[in-house]
Amino acid sequence: MKPSFFSQISETSGKISLHSLLLFLVAFPLSVSASQILAGLSIFCFIFSPKENFQKIRSYLLPWGFILGAYALVFISSLVHFEEYSNFWKTFTRQSEAGDFWLSILFPIAAVHSSDEKNRSLIYKYLWISFLLVLISGIASVFSEYRLGKFISNGFTPAPGDRRQHPAGPLFGLDTYLPIGLMNTHLTYGGLISFYIPGIALLTLRKLKEKDLKRTVGFGILLLLSLWVFLLNQSKSAWLGVFAVTVYFILSKWKDFSGKLPRFTLARISIVILLLITLAGTVRFFYQRNWLLQRTLAQLTEIQTPENQRYWIYKLSLPLLAKNPILGTGGGRFKETSSDISKSFIEKNEQLWYELYITPNKHAHNDILEFAIVGGWFSGILWIGFFYLLFRKIANSSLEEGNFPLVGVGFIWVAGFFQCYLLDDEVALPFFALAGLLWGREKETSSKFSTASTIFLSFTLLLNTSFWIWRLSIPAELAYGRQVFASSSQVAKKIERRILPFRNQTSEREKRISENIIVSASEGNSEFSLEGCLTHRYPNPAKLREEDYSLGIYISPTWENPPTKVSVTVFSEESFDEDKLYWSHRKYDLGTKELDLKPGWNSFIWKETMELSKITIFPDIVFFRSFKIRFGGFSPEKQMDLPVLDLGDLCDFKLK
């Protein structure tokens, strides 16, 4: 019997949906717009596909229901706060987290297509193409001064005003930059390549076990290239996510894994040791020649860093969660509501104004926390429920070559503790697609309670929560630190320790004054710069500062070799946003003054010398008045006692 017209349309629509999904896998490393169009086409055509597909989709309604529920609660919260929006529909469609629910529709559709065995080999080939495009574009962007996406779209010419790449330092005489592939940010690219790294590692182990030397070398080279680009990418949240999901997969499949690993022999152990030494030497080589990598690793133990300001973000986020635990604040309102919390911090300590201004406040930089804030606690809990099912699925995944790169999709759980990947369309859309492919490929072997998944989610969530409870217990006045640039990072840390915090932290101030910190004679005689204060005062519009700028320098009578002279140069520095914080800014000296230092407190005072706007909208025409300091007059034969520096609360030191 000849198929009916409608059945032919149905079959054709199903095929178009599948091939649109395949093209989507190729497109998402290359173009955000193209990938969204293809995802939308796959979803649209699936609606008209054979009814058998809709019968298959029932198997995936439970995990998808958790996702849709989380988005639905954000929408309900938004309706509750309807009157608080200046323009509800504009804010909801452009800024609300619930507006991204359509991305998740690709999850059950990808699962249905992946459940058909005749599609799997084709999907697997396109996943490889996708991975190679991510890797190749990342390597190319390492050596590109311009952001490749815009550079290519502009006809291989830089457009005026386009942001340049973040430099990563020279390598073999070539300038290198943070790899971003064809994406807009390095964090997005870090998310994309994270999907593949665990799978590549798994394939390398399999081929090593199978004694397939040719493929072992090939996969090993791809793994090393991926890790190099990944390390250079500087996405610390993605690093943690990839490490966590890899450890989870190995532990949950340890019995199977032990059978897949090659037996230990003296020759093989020697080869492994040689490879580890080579890898360690390579990492050390790149580390010593890459200032950006050195800075990134050094910042892992710091609270306040201009690039990693989670302390301030969470300080603004948690009060919102406590204020609206059930219904949340409503979609797209995080920035607006967190700004109210920010004002209270600034009114208490005005010096925090600039620090909080450059702190990204569009979202909570934590996936679960973000949905809990905008949609209420239950919205965040639903996401936890989905990840429980996802990690149960990962634990049940077989060690098959066709599962590349699907086992890596779980990286987003731990990585999402530090970055809102679920709000990033460029990462969220592939996440839903790859998670769907994993669900469809792996038949549900058991619906029993997963102890491994529960322990993993609980342990990582508890570890992250405990860490931030400890960090956030530090008062904002002590978490804040003025930027110091010195001859070395070690000297800068010592100088930071000599700068007194705000006046209300009396015990910490007394503690730092009583400390004795010494530096070498050469370090003591070297110039360092110290972040000062703004030329205009809070609130916005900002008024020109009227008070003189002053700082205090304390010399203890008991010190053996303190400086007896100091040269202070006041310099003007442009105010700037967080994306430029580590760049060179337009700076120029305003004046230099030398002082003789005596035991006790010494006061430096500087009066404004330039005509500045009386009233301005911050940060326009607002500058820093910062200080370059050089000590002298001490014995060069001994180590120098480093003086205490006090800028008061707002460069307003006063002698007691």
UniProtKB/TrEMBL annotation:
The entry's localization annotation reads: Membrane
Report membrane topology.
Answer: Multi-pass membrane protein
| InterPro entries given in the database record | O-antigen_ligase-rel_domated (IPR007016), WaaL-like (IPR051533)
Transmembrane helix as a keyword?
Answer: yes
- Enumerate the spans annotated as O-antigen ligase-related domain: 222-384
Listed under GO cellular component are: membrane
Keyword terms of this UniProt record: Ligase, Membrane, Transmembrane, Transmembrane helix
- The question of whether Membrane is a record keyword is answered with yes
GO terms, molecular function: ligase activity
Membrane spanning residue stretches: 21-49, 61-82, 123-143, 187-205, 217-232, 238-254, 266-287, 371-391, 403-424, 449-470
Q: What is this protein called?
A: Ligase
Biological source species: Leptospira saintgironsiae
